[in-house]
Each structure stands twice: as C-alpha cells, then as structure tokens.
Design a protein that fits this description.
GO terms for molecular function: homogentisate 1,2-dioxygenase activity. By secondary structure, this protein is mostly beta strands. The protein folds into two domains: 6-275, Jelly Rolls, CATH 2.60.120.10; 279-420, Jelly Rolls, CATH 2.60.120. It has helices at 371-379, 405-409; strands spanning 6-8, 14-17, 38-43, 56-61, 73-75, 95-97, 113-121, 126-135, 142-146, 150-157, 160-164, 167-171, 175-179, 185-189, 194-201, 225-228, 239-245, 248-254, 261-266, 271-274, 295-300, 307-314, 317-319, 336-343, 358-361, 385-387, 391-397, 402-403. Strands 1-16-20-13-10-15-8-7-28 form a nine-stranded antiparallel beta sheet. A six-stranded antiparallel beta sheet has the order 6-25-24-27-22-21, with no helix packed on it. Bound molecules: 2-(3,6-dihydroxyphenyl)acetic acid and fe (ii) ion. 2-(3,6-dihydroxyphenyl)acetic acid (OMD) is lined by residues 291, 328, 333, 337, 348, 361, 367, 394. Fe (ii) ion binds at residues 331, 333, 337, 361, 367.
C-alpha cells in the first residue's frame, strides 16, 4: 500500500484531483464539468466574511449533495448531547475521571460518542462540547456529517482512517484531525477498538494563535498541517448518511456513497497535525509561564484575545527555570479547563491522572498540583530536567463547562478527587501577630 499523500500548509488555497483533468481550470462553474461531474460550493464562512476569515471549497462530484441529504428520518443518539444541556447534576467542585474501557459491543466512531461536558449554545454558534469516543466497529457503508460544528479529534488509543469528501486522513495517538463543519466522512478503525477525545466546536473555526513577540516561527508551524489529496468512492450500493443538525440526529438511506468528490480546490478542508511537531517556547530563566504558550489552535470569540475554545498541549520539554516551583501554580481561572492525557504522566498530578482519563476544572474553581507533586517539586534539584514521553492536552473555554448526567454517572468518576490536596500541610513558619 502506498503511503497516504497530503497537501502541506494551514488553510492554504489547495487543489487536488483524483483523475487527471477533473478540476476545471480558470473558473469554478463551467457549463459542463470534466467527466460529467457536478460543481458544488461548500461555504464555511459567510460569502461576505473578510478575506482572511473567508473559507470555502469547490467540490467536483459524481452527484450533488442534494441527492445525499434526502428524506431525512429522525434517529436517536442517546449519548451525544448538545449545548445548552443541563441534564447532569454536578456538585460544585473539581472533577476527574479514570480511563473508560471500550465495551465489547462498542459501535462505530459516531455511535461510540459520549458527551462529557457542554458549554454555550450550538444555535448561537457559541461554545463547545467535549466528548469521549469508545469505538469498536469500522464504518463501511455508513457516513456522517455535522452541521453543528467542526470536530477536533484527539485519538488516545487505536489508529483511525478518516475517509472524507476531500480524501483520506490517517490519524494515530499523538496526532489530531479536524473535520470542518459540513464535511461528510466515515471512520475505519485500522488497529481495532479505539478510544479518544473530541472537541465539537460550535464557534469560529480553529485557527493558529497569533504568536506576538515570539515572532514568525515556533509553536505549531503552518507547514506541519496536512490536508488530504482527492480520493473518491464510486460505490453504487445501499449506504446510510447520518446528519447532526441543531442537536438532533437524522438518517438518510442512499443507494450510493456520498464520498464521491473526484476533485476539489479551496481553503476549507479537513487537516491533521502531529502534536510531536509542536515547537514549544518556555521559561528559560525563572517562573512558570501561563499555559497559553502551548496553544496549538484557537477558536476565537467576539471578545478580543479570548478563546471560545483554545486547544493547548503539555508536550515533552526541558525544564530549566531557576529557584522556581516548576509545576503549575495553584490557581483560579475565569476560563474553564477540560483536560485529557494521551500518554505518560502529567507533572501536576503524577499518580491520579491516567492516560485516557479526564479532568474538569471549571471557571473559578481552585486547583493545582496534588500534595505529592507539591512535595516533590518543593524539594527537587533544579538542574535541567526533561519532561519526556508525556502528552496531555486541554480544551480551555471562556464559558462554563457543564458535565452531562452520563459523565456524572460514569463508574470512572473519582469520588475522592479533592482528597489529592488534603495532605497539603500548613508550612507557615511565621509568628502570629
Ligand atoms: O490546571 C492545569 O493543570 C492546566 C494548567 C497548566 C499550567 O502549566 C498552568 C495553568 C494551568 O491551568
Ligand atoms: Fe488550570
């Protein structure tokens, strides 16, 4: 099998054709398209959006999408929730979950979606949902698209082959994939049962953060983002397309595959990124910097500089700060923090936070290193130390994140999470007044 080919760059004006000459030259909408294809525009922004925010692609396909989205019938998805959703009675406090097992009877990537938190309002195009996926079956003649938001997929266990209208993306733990709103796809599990996290972003599409004084290079570099090359299925057999729209699910029965795009061009396309290519900057003399220095992607909100959701990672890096408590400080944050661990150990929680697990530190709820991490870091020898082979991430939002009833009923919920701080002793050495 030849290696999957990709187009390199972030948000470029790409073009790709699976058959020679399939892409019309010099215009988008010729009277007759090559090979008898239909031309279709997929708009990810308003036609009138300023040019740096304008996103659309032209798809040249065997049938137009009006023949895919036909006679939609209501279907249920009992575990994929949409904001606003307040079905979970969460007590006030920090929450943490261990890793969930993938059940033996787990369904597809779509069926296996389990919403953990929601924020904002999908109809207002504000907020997000964070999901866990527990998948056991490949999607062969089943397809899906989401009108409610884009999907940032963060595999934690198992490899995914994501067949999209734009072509194939292969995505393994350590990598991420973003499927834009409205893009049809199916997911095969190439290494068996799979688990991971998904951020469903209802707001502005993810983009690279401004680097400010860091300059023109570093963090996630644009050339390390890969979009697929055109590939199509010419499949005339019963298929099923499910659609998520306005928090509800619909099913369309088709007699062909909707992944029938033979050529495409434009700047609105799925992409993948290997998080191990992230080029971190950090404290080179003293103190612990704000974690925003590790932002990979941001979905901006209307509030200047404040993310609807930021996707940040805690990548392998050298720690060299002098006379410094090196793990995260104790803090309360107006932003809300949902975290996951892809592999390794997280320095603020060396034991309790396990790969595949999750934590939720909501707006203005205090958190920070557990007692074990505090003791270690207060005594540690401050030579250069490498945090190696560890990869945690955070979905951080300006909005409060509401856990679902499913999340609150998970057997993996740590009932005693807050106990991780109870051994923080009074160390005060001063005298009373
Ligand atoms: O709470 C956390 O573990 C995430 C986090 C990490 C960090 O280095 C600084 C602030 C922060 O919220
Ligand atoms: Fe935090």
């Amino acid at each position: 099998m030849s290696p999957t080919r990709y187009l390199h760059g972030f948000g470029n004006e790409f073009e790709s054709e699976a058959l020679p000459g399939a892409l019309p030259m010099g215009q988008n909408s010729p009277q007759r398209c090559p090979y008898g294809l239909y031309a279709e525009q997929l708009s990810g922004s308003a036609f009138t959006a300023p040019s740096h925010l304008n996103k659309r692609s032209w798809l040249y396909r065997i049938r137009p999408s009006v023949l895919h989205v036909r006679n939609p019938k209501d279907i249920e998805h009992s575990h994929w929730k949409t904001a606003p959703c307040r079905d979970g009675e969460a007590p006030l406090g920090q929450l943490r979950w261990g890793a969930s097992e993938i059940p033996d009877d787990a369904g597809s990537f779509i069926e296996g979606m389990r919403t953990i938190v929601t924020a904002g309002d999908c109809s207002l195009r504000v907020g997000l949902a964070a999901h866990l996926y527990l998948a056991g079956q490949s999607m062969h003649d089943e397809y899906f698209y989401n009108a409610d938001g884009e999907l940032l997929i963060v595999p934690q266990f198992g490899d995914l082959r994501i067949f999209t209208e734009f072509g194939l993306i292969e995505c393994s733990p350590g990598e991420i994939c973003v499927v834009p709103r409205g893009v049809k796809f199916r997911v095969e599990l190439s290494a068996g049962p799979s688990r991971g996290y998904v951020c469903e972003n209802y707001g502005a599409p993810f983009t690279l953060p401004y680097r400010g004084v860091i300059g023109a290079n570093g963090l996630a570099n644009p050339r390390d983002f890969f979009s697929p090359t055109a590939a199509f299925e010419d499949k005339e057999k019963p298929c099923r397309l499910s659609v998520k729209w306005g928090g509800r699910f619909y099913r369309c029965d088709l007699d062909h595959s909707p992944l029938d795009v033979v050529a495409w061009h434009g700047n609105y396309a799925p992409y993948k990124y290997d998080l191990r290519k992230f080029c971190p900057v950090g404290a080179v003399l003293f103190d612990h910097p704000d974690p925003s220095i590790f932002t990979v992607l941001t979905s901006p909100s209307d509030e200047s500089g404040v993310g609807n959701v930021d996707f940040a990672i805690f990548p392998p890096r050298w720690q060299v700060a002098e006379h410094t408590f090196r793990p995260p400080w104790y803090h309360l944050n107006i932003m809300s923090e949902f975290m996951g661990l892809i592999y390794g150990r997280y320095d603020a929680k060396p034991s309790g936070f396990e790969p595949g697990g999750m934590s939720l530190h909501n707006a203005m709820l205090p958190h920070g290193p557990d007692a074990e991490a505090f003791e270690q870091a207060s005594e540690a020898d401050l030579g250069p130390v490498k945090i190696d082979d560890a990869l945690a991430f955070m979905f951080e939002s300006r909005l409060p994140l509401y856990p679902t009833s499913f999340a609150m009923s998970l057997g993996t919920l740590h009932q005693d999470y807050a106990e991780c701080w109870s051994d923080l002793r009074r160390n005060f050495t001063g005298n009373g007044p």
